[in-house]
Structures are given as structure tokens and as C-alpha cells.
Automatic annotation (TrEMBL):
<feature type="transmembrane region" description="Helical">
    <location>
        <begin position="186"/>
        <end position="204"/>
    </location>
</feature>
<feature type="transmembrane region" description="Helical">
    <location>
        <begin position="124"/>
        <end position="142"/>
    </location>
</feature>
<dbReference type="GO" id="GO:0009273">
    <property type="term" value="P:peptidoglycan-based cell wall biogenesis"/>
</dbReference>
<feature type="transmembrane region" description="Helical">
    <location>
        <begin position="52"/>
        <end position="77"/>
    </location>
</feature>
<feature type="transmembrane region" description="Helical">
    <location>
        <begin position="154"/>
        <end position="174"/>
    </location>
</feature>
<keyword id="KW-0548">Nucleotidyltransferase</keyword>
<feature type="transmembrane region" description="Helical">
    <location>
        <begin position="225"/>
        <end position="245"/>
    </location>
</feature>
<keyword id="KW-0812">Transmembrane</keyword>
<feature type="transmembrane region" description="Helical">
    <location>
        <begin position="12"/>
        <end position="32"/>
    </location>
</feature>
<feature type="transmembrane region" description="Helical">
    <location>
        <begin position="251"/>
        <end position="272"/>
    </location>
</feature>
<dbReference type="GO" id="GO:0016779">
    <property type="term" value="F:nucleotidyltransferase activity"/>
</dbReference>
<protein>
    <submittedName>
        <fullName>Phosphatidate cytidiltransferase</fullName>
    </submittedName>
</protein>
<dbReference type="GO" id="GO:0005886">
    <property type="term" value="C:plasma membrane"/>
</dbReference>
<feature type="transmembrane region" description="Helical">
    <location>
        <begin position="98"/>
        <end position="118"/>
    </location>
</feature>
<keyword id="KW-0808">Transferase</keyword>
<keyword id="KW-0472">Membrane</keyword>
<dbReference type="Pfam" id="PF01148">
    <property type="entry name" value="CTP_transf_1"/>
</dbReference>
Length: 314
């Protein structure tokens, strides 16, 4: 079990404080606009808030359990994200054995490597060994139809939903001077900045958005929303420097890197959905779509944040 020190208690208290305020506001709006046509928007908002409650409670339980709980939590997230990705990018029967290896061998091994803190193998297992194994296994099946396309789909799915996401709990393996035993705060810092960046970009876009960034790809993303959301997220990250090994300006720069990569991740995932003709990857989380819809920004932000922190602070 993890000891909840004063700083961690304050951070968790702030998260749930925001959720309580959001729930109260959502309830008031639902009563105020009861029977109004715009109530569907408010219902969607409240569904999203309930989804956030569920996700935050699960995260807190994982934090309390300790590093093992965090690794298991992200392993489960990777499992559902990979399932959604493979469902949306169909493969052939001849790929089923390769997919079995992905779901039940390679994914567990990757997270075991995170759990035992074996950085050397964790960092190359999927990009090297799995990368070489998967097309070889598909080739042995003898099916040449769209071979390169099928191999690329499976490999990209493994890289983005397993390898990239596993960098989030891998933050717990970093040995940062004068910060031992506190790495769970670094993981929470990453999660808060990434998720709040998405929310703030949406809010600023709704309030001030006029110029679309990539209309054909994501019509809801605007220049004003992007600039306002990133700026606000950088300020938020800088204000949370006290739970990190960073100074205020370093926390701000780290937040900038996180938000920029998160934005790119969201665009890439949107491109996949548009190409497949769907709005969401799934419906596992009420008001949020699928697991991959919720962690699309994290897929790109987590590896960059991990390696920046490892390079400059260990």
C-alpha cells in the first residue's frame, strides 16, 4: 500500500474538489433547462462528468495500491485500447495467431518489464523484437493479401496502444535524486496536464473558436481553442511544480511538451477514425466514447515526457 503524504493528499483533494464543483454545476443546469431542447447538451456534459468520476476513482484505487496497481491499471487500459484499434482496422483470419501473441504474450510481458523496472528490455522489446516477430508470423501463415497493410496495422497498434502507453507507469521506475518514492506524483502530473489540456482546448474552442485548424480532420479543433487550451494547461502545469522534481519554469516547459504532443496524438487518432468513418473508437466510457478516445493524447505525450524526464533528471 502506498503512503499518502500531504502533497499527494492535496493533489487528490484538488482533483475531487473540481469534480464535485462540476457535478453541482451540471445538476443545476439539468434542473434549470429541464424540458429545453438544449438539455441534450447538458445531459452529455453530465454523462462526461460521471465518466470522469469513474476514471478518477479507479486511478485513486490504483495509486493507493501502489506501483503494482498502477501497472495493472495501464495494462488493462492498453488491452481495451488495442482491442478497439484492431476492431476498427480489420485484419484477416490468418492474422489471428499473431494477434493472440499481441494480446496474451507480448502485452503482459511489456508490463511485467515495467513492473520489474527492467528499462533496457522494456525500451526495445516491442520496437525491435515484437516488430520483427509479427510480420514473420503472418508470413508463415501464407496469406499474401494486403500483407504489408495488415502487418503495419498490427505493429502500429502495438506501438501506440501498448508500447507508448506503458511509458506512463514506467515513470515509476525513474530514480530521480531527492525524489525517491514520490514518482506516483509525476504520473498524476502527466495525467492531469494531458487530460486538462483536452478539456481546456474544447472549452476555449467553444467560447472563442472561429478558425478551424484541420477542418476535414477535426472540425471542432480551432486555432483559438488550441492556443487558449495550451496556454492554460502550461500555467496549470507550472502551478503544480510542487508535486514534481521541476522548478516552476521547468514544469511549464514540460507541460508545453506534453500538451503539444497530446494535441498531435489526438489529431492522428482522429485521422484513423475519419478514415474508418466512425465518430468514436468504442463506447466503454459513458460520455467519452472508447478507451482509445480517452487516452489518444496520452499515447503521444507519455513517451516524450518519460524520456525528457529520464534524460534531464536522472
Amino acid at each position: 500500500m502506498m503512503n499518502l503524504d500531504h502533497e499527494l493528499m492535496m493533489l487528490l483533494g484538488g482533483i475531487f474538489g473540481v469534480l464535485i464543483i462540476a457535478s453541482v454545476i451540471g445538476g443545476i443546469l439539468a434542473l434549470w433547462y429541464s424540458g429545453d431542447k438544449s438539455n441534450s447538451t447538458i445531459d452529455n456534459l453530465n454523462a462526461r462528468i460521471r465518466g470522469w468520476w469513474m476514471m478518477c476513482i479507479i486511478c485513486v484505487v490504483a495509486v493507493i495500491v501502489g506501483p503494482v496497481g498502477s501497472v495493472i491499471l495501464f495494462a488493462v487500459m492498453s488491452f481495451f485500447a488495442l482491442r478497439e484499434f484492431i476492431t476498427l482496422t480489420p485484419t484477416r483470419r490468418s492474422d489471428h495467431e499473431a494477434l493472440f501473441w499481441c494480446f496474451f504474450i507480448f502485452m503482459p510481458v511489456q508490463y511485467v518489464l515495467v513492473g520489474v523496472q527492467w528499462y533496457g528490455l522494456f525500451s526495445v522489446f516491442i520496437p525491435v523484437y515484437v516488430f520483427l516477430f509479427l510480420p514473420a508470423r503472418s508470413a508463415l501463415a501464407g496469406d499474401t493479401t494486403h500483407f504489408l497493410e495488415r502487418a503495419a496495422k498490427i505493429q502500429w497498434g502495438m506501438l501506440v496502444t501498448v508500447f507508448a502507453i506503458s511509458h506512463a507507469p514506467a515513470l515509476l521506475m525513474l530514480d530521480i535524486p531527492d525524489y525517491q518514492g514520490q514518482n506516483i506524483k509525476l504520473l498524476l502530473f502527466l495525467m492531469i496536464v494531458v487530460q486538462m489540456s483536452d478539456v481546456l482546448q474544447y472549452v476555449f474552442g467553444k467560447l472563442f473558436g472561429k478558425r478551424q485548424i484541420v477542418p476535414k480532420l477535426s472540425p471542432n479543433k480551432t486555432v483559438e481553442g488550441f492556443v487558449g487550451g495550451v496556454a492554460a494547461s502550461v500555467l496549470l502545469g507550472a502551478s503544480l511544480f510542487w508535486v514534481t522534481p521541476f522548478s516552476p519554469w521547468e514544469a511549464g516547459l514540460m507541460s508545453l511538451a506534453i500538451t503539444l504532443m497530446g494535441f498531435i496524438g489526438g489529431l492522428c487518432m482522429s485521422a484513423i477514425k475519419r478514415d474508418s468513418g466512425v465518430k468514436d473508437f468504442g463506447g466503454i466510457i459513458e460520455g467519452h466514447g472508447g478507451m482509445l478516445d480517452r487516452i489518444d493524447s496520452l499515447c503521444f505525450a507519455a513517451p516524450i515526457f518519460f524520456h525528457l524526464t529520464r534524460y534531464f533528471y536522472t
